[in-house]
Write a structure and sequence with these properties.
Number of strands: 0
Structural class: mainly alpha
Strand content: under 5%
Distance between the termini: 56 Å
Largest sheet: none
Number of helices: 11
Length: 213
Amino acid sequence: MAVGKIDRTLVADTALRLLNDVGLDGLSLRAIAKELDVKAPALYWHFKDKQALLDEMATRMYLRMVAGTPLPPGTGWRERVLISNRGLRSALLGYRDGAKVFSGSRFTGVEHAVQMEENLRVFVDAGFTLRQAVRAMTTAYLYTLGFVTEEQGVRPMPGERREGFDVGERAERLAGYPLTAAAGPAIFEEYDEQFEEGLQMLLAGIEARYGIT
């Protein structure tokens, strides 16, 4: 592929495709350049380093998430928390190390501000101060990001499971601690149920903290 045909979006999309094969540790500008059939220095016209690439990858992931997770007009703040964070979890799980790519990245451009502005407006109109709205949204985001980080530590991709996380073997190893041994399935399985219950706990906490129901 000729260098002139390469742009930031193409490089980021190629990186996201490679991510499922090599993971974050194996993803390099050299590997991406090889996939695009160009020399690695050509990519530095678009990204000064790997973090700049990760920022663009996270932005692409976010925009795809928004496009695939519509928020109908009139959606209240509770439903926005649920829909947005379910969509975020689903988007992150679609990529090996998806949560690691997203964590600490800075969105490029301003497209992400469209939904953020809308979400903040709904919260403020419901009675939250702007600071409270930010705290509520950020706490929900951090919950989801942390949850998926741990989930992907056990299941890097759907159908995969890292060695050492078999709950039966764990129970045998911790037989002297019966409650801890029995807790295995609730910790390392049932991720969908765990996530949903956590979201409900989070909503209850927001309501209790700010007195808005």
